[in-house]
Amino acid sequence: MNLLIKSATILDPGSSFHQRVADILIENGVITRIADDIDADTELFDAEGKYVSPGFFDLNCNVGELGLETKEDLHSGTMAAAAGGFTGIALMPNTQPPVHSKSEVEYLLNRSKGNLVDVYPLGTISQKREGKDLAEMYDMYQSGAKAFTDGNRPVQDAGLMERALLYAQGFDALVFSYPEDTAIAGKAKVNEGEISTLLGMKGIPSLAEELMVARDLYLAEYTVSRIHFTTISTARSVELIREAKRKGIEVTCDVAAHHLILTDEALLGFDSLYKVKPPLRTADDVAALVKGLKDGTIDAIVSQHTPHEIEFKDVEFEVAEYGIIGLQTAFSLALKAGLPVELIVEKLAVNPREILGVELPVIAEDEKANLVVFDTDAEWEYTAANNKSKSANSPYIGQRLKGKVLLTYNNQQIFK
C-alpha cells in the first residue's frame, strides 16, 4: 500500500533524518523518498505536529493460541498490537500445549505469515514448562525461536538454569529469566508491605524476586552467558542489575508498563483487574524503575499483555487470575510515567529488537517501511468498542489516556 506521510517529526536514532520534520513517501512497502515537501498522487496522512518512529516491539506478550484461543488468538492479538503501535511481538510460551518443540514454533510462524505485525515465538527452557528437563532448544532455534523462557513460571532449579545458559551459548541464543523464588513467594497474591497488612492478605516479599535476580546474575557471570530479566519490579532488583552491568556481565532487563504507574495502593478496593504478577509494588519501587529506565539500567518497556476471559477476572480477588491486557495502553502509560518521547522510542522500538537480535527498521530512503505515527498530546478514551483484544481485563477501559497511536505501517499494510 502506498502512503505519503506529511510533515512528521522523525524520531529514529539510527536515521540521518533523526529529529527532522519531513515528508515520507512509501511505495510498495519501501520508503522511496524523504524530503521537506513531497507531492505525490497517493493516500495522504497529515502528521504535522506528530511523531514518526520505527514500529514498537513487545518482548513480553501473551496470546492464547495454541489451545487458549478463547482468551486471545493470533488475529485479535495482532490487531491489539497494531492498535498500540507495535509492529513486532515476542510471544510467551504460556499456552496449552506450551511452545516446547519445533512443531509449535513452526505452527505459530506459519499462522502469522502475511500479518502487519511480525510474530516471534519464544520457546520454553524446560519440557512442558515443568522445570525438570531441558526442552528441544536447538530444534526450536532452527525453526525460528529467538529466545527461551518458561514464561510466567520461574526456573527454580539452579542447575537447570545453568545448563540452559551453557547450552544456549552454543548457538548464540538468549535466555529469559522470570525472577521469582516460589518457595518464598508461596501462595501470596499481593506485595508484602503496609497495604497487604491493611488488606489482611499474605504478601509476596520483594526478596522473592531479588534472590532470583541475584542467583541468575551469578549464573550468567559463572557461565559467561547473556541473560535477560523480564518484568522486574523492585528497587533492589534495579540496583542488582545496575551493579552487574558495571561489572561487565551481559545482562539486559525490561519492565511492564503498568509497573511504572500503579502501586499496591490500587488494591485497596480489592479490584481483581489490578491483580498482576509480579505484584504491584510501592511508590519507592516505581520511582526506582523510572530512574532505571532513564539511566539505562532497564533496557526496555513491555506490555506483559495477558488476556483472560471474564470468568477468570470477575471473581473474588483471592481466586482471580493474574494479568491485564496492555498492548493498546503501553505507550500512553510510558508517557504518563514522565519519560521523554525519545527515551520511549528507545525502550519500545529500538532496544527490544537489539536484545532479541531482530533487524531494526530504519526510517531512511530505500529501507522497508516499518513505522508508527503518534501524537504525544492527543487524549483518547479506551473503550470496549475500540478494544481490539478478545479480552477486556484492563483497569484502563473507560478511562481517558494521553498519548495516541494514530497509524501503524508494516509489511505493506496500514492500521489507523
Automatic annotation (TrEMBL):
Where is each Dihydroorotase catalytic domain found?
Answer: 49-235
| CDD domains named in the record | DHOase_IIa
Q: Name one GO molecular function term.
A: dihydroorotase activity
Alphabetically sorted, this entry's keywords are:
Pyrimidine biosynthesis
Q: One GO BP annotation here?
A: pyrimidine nucleotide biosynthetic process
One CC-aspect GO term:
cytoplasm
| Domain of life per record | Bacteria
Show the Pfam families listed in the entry: DHOase (PF12890)
The record, for PANTHER family, names: ALLANTOINASE
NCBIfam families assigned:
pyrC_multi
Tell me what this protein is called: Dihydroorotase
For this protein's source organism, the top of the classification is: Bacteria, Pseudomonadati, Bacteroidota, Sphingobacteriia, Sphingobacteriales
